Amino acid sequence: MPENQSTKEPILKVTDLKQYFKISDSYTVKAVDGVSFDIYPGETYGLVGESGSGKSTIGRAVIRLYDPTDGRIEFDGMDITGKMSRKNENTLRTRMQMIFQDPMASLNPRKTVGDIVAEGLDIHHTYKTHEERNQMVSEILKKVGLSPEHRSRYPHQFSGGQRQRVGIARALIMNPKLIIADECISALDVSIQAQVVNLMKDIQQETGTAYLFIAHDLSMVKYISDRIGVLHLGHLLETGTKDEIFDNPLHPYTRSLLSAIPSPNPIFEKGRISETYDYKTSGINYSEGTYHHISGQHYVKCTDEEFNKWNS
To answer: What's the structural domain count of the chain?
Structure first.
């Protein structure tokens, strides 16, 4: 858990982020609609929600793979929302990195692992000699549990978990302050998921990097995250520490997500009843809601009437 956040400035500050995609003259998809959150140095912020809720879109907008429709994104004291200067763009590309969901699709099959991991070093010219480059690659491969001899191999010669470690090494070699992990464990076996997540936690303790951890698996998000945001239909419905979200969920969508988590206790599991939530019939209008402070860092987005009903 990071230090007292009141004494720190956020490494990432997202304010009223909107990401719209125009499909036709009469139809626009509002993938992200007014999302705000902060990430502090050394912490992990988990972003959860069903498929199509806008999680990956937020990650890609934050790292500027998309140009945000509206809102403001501040990273390490820089405004990176609009057109950036070359200096700010170079700073962003070195201090913020991304780990993608499918390691095979995000790794160039025609390049060796050594060249893939060193790609950022080559672009930004952060080494003086070829020997220094190879040494940096070897050290980062060892840090993620691979052998320096793997530098000469190609992605298809690795397992899924090993390929994801290559993706993590490629992100870490730039010594970033923030890593966006976009469902980086969802394509892996459960045992490999645990290895990758534990590796990420160990690296965070060693380097102090912050994570925006995007995932479906609520149990894994609870394990790795300090704070959690619950996303639905492009709106951030509830956010707080992992204990606040899991122990005192207020929004009915959050409660429905948590009620669907299976229990390893067969007696409890037999009597578990999953709550259902349908936005169309719920009578809730996300666009009319405002954020209400519950306690600590716990906020829920709803109208005054809904807040009074849920909090009574």
So the answer is: 1
> Positive or negative, the Cα torsion across 140, 141, 142, 148?
negative
Q: Which residue has the tokens 């937020």?
A: 58
Q: How would DSSP label each residue in 180-237? A: EEESTTTTS-HHHHHHHHHHHHHHHHHH--EEEEEES-HHHHHHH-SEEEEEETTEEE
Yes or no: say if 203 and 41 are a contact pair by the CB < 8 Å rule. Answer: no
Does residue 251 lie in a domain region?
yes
Residue 7 counted as domain residue: no
Could you tell me if residue 2 is inside a domain?
Answer: no
pLDDT attached to residue 5: 55
User: What is the DSSP code (8-state) at residue 273?
Assistant: -
Of 80, 83, 101, nearest to 91 (Cα)? 80
Instruction: Give buried/exposed letters for 75-113 (b at 16+ CB in 10 A, else e).
Output: bbebebbeeeeeeeeebbbbbbbbbbbbbeebbeeeebb
pLDDT, tens digit, for every residue of 284-309? 999 888 999 998 899 999 999 999 98
Give the domain CATH number at 162.
3.40.50.300
Half-sphere exposure of 168 (CA within 13 A, CB side): 29
Q: Are 169 and 143 in contact (CB under 8 A)?
A: yes
Of 188, 184, 44, whose CA–CA distance to 106 is shortest? Answer: 184
Provide the pLDDT for residue 111: 93
Residue 6 covered by a domain: no
Cβ atoms of 289 and 306 closer than 8 Å? yes
Give the residue numbers spanning the domain of 199: 12-310
pTM for this predicted structure = 0.89
Summarised one tens digit per residue, pLDDT across range 50-75 is 888 999 999 999 999 999 999 999 99
Q: Which two tokens stand for residue 79?
A: 């405004």
Q: How many C-beta atoms lie closer than 10 Å to residue 210's C-beta?
A: 24
